[in-house]
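pipeline stage [seq->struct] | target=Histidine ammonia-lyase | organism=Virgibacillus siamensis | residues=506
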Amino acid sequence: MVILTGETLTMEEVRRVVCEDEPVSLAGSSREKIITSRKTVETMLAEKQTMYGINTGFGKFSDVVIEDDDLEELQLNLIHSHACGVGEPFSEKISRAMLLLRANALIQGYSGVRIELVEQFLHFLNEKVHPVIPQQGSLGASGDLAPLSHLALSLLGEGEVFYNGKRTITEAALQDAGLTSLTLKAKEGLALINGTQAMTAVGVITYLEMEKLLRQSEQVAAMTLEGLHGIIDAFDDDLHRVRGHQEQMDVAARFRHMLQDSLLTTRQGEQRVQDAYSLRCIPQVLGASWQTFNYAKDKLETEINAVTDNPLIFSEKNNVISGGNFHGQPIAFAMDFLKLGIAETANIAERRIERLVNPQLNDLPPFLSPNPGLESGAMIMQYSAASLVSENKTLAHPASVDSIPSSANQEDHVSMGTIAARHALMMLQNTRNVVAIELICAMQAVEFRSVDKMAAATREFYKNARSIVPSITKDRVFSTDIEKLANWLKDCRESKINHEGSVLHE
């Protein structure tokens, strides 16, 4: 059970709720904050104070005062009019993450919502009712208005949800789950949709998957080193210590540990003086990718406990402040930066694939083919990897440098953070396929060298991967192999790296 306070949610707790369907509950202290905040809103309404989005219109309509009898309709109209998302829906994991993160923001007692609204979020999470939320349509400032409006629709019993593995109308799912729909009161519609939870949810899923893939890319690269008789001296501690980047030193340490008993790696001067950069510079490149990951991790960990709607209610001062905490620039920058690390993980992996299949760069069978000429072997797998890397380069263009004014120029600078996060996740999926292709080629190479001479760590990884995809004994439809291996890389047991740099499997 994860207890939500609004301020203490961790990435590990998010992972358990999103990936393992762990239930959630509300801390008692948060319950009191929510009730106090709501009382403040109701008192100000009774005093006829003018408050943005509570008894006024939205955006450019902020100067239009709304009559008391129309306040509930105002909130419902907001949700209906703003539910303009298009495209394929987010995955259930992302939808579930959005529910969790939005609930965690609302319970801090600055949003002026009723306890019933927060409890509706918890019911959806615990009963696994996941809103169908189109991916496209958010500018990432004024928050993720369109995606969060689709989320809000489901709380009201409208729209569609995923429930029991099926996409269905919300009303039917709520009935099956024993839940009732919600009616919005003053302030609540705006509180639901002003926020960064779409971009942050996508960012969190990307973070969780990238952490695993970065570790796996190191394991695959270590196997490639063995398949190409790579020079282990390039991973020497002294070499990396004098550079000083911790992530680079950590990568080198993990390679030394993984390959410490390998009979396939070489020393400088034995076969060649030095390797190409895609082998020799693995710690420098992947270390830098880890740096982008760590930066994004820091910003995401802050944002999952952030209050990002507008206006905010400060009950202790009896004050309502309109500001811009919904602006997604911090996450937009973080996701754009992360995209660079994802892109380079794929870039260098594709170059290692080329070294594995190109007969002019190694002494292996051309294209790792069992019958070169008659059979093409891994030739076109390298093409696919190159295509994915090129696509990544296009997606890596920073979304955060773009801004298109909206709401009659009232909202004249936006972050495009949700686009950045979506592209980061797309790039991660492309990169996983590239790593899968490298793994297929690396396994063929070490088989040619002798599996018995592999290091114990890489040999274990090899055996596990070989249980998913068999050796290439003749040409076959390799698309199936790539897909199977990519799914295995995504879904296999979580990898952990201990302080000594070894890779462990739980």
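stage status: PASS
auto-comment: The first strand starts at residue 2 and ends at 4. The chain has two domains: 2-195, 203-305+340-404+414-505.
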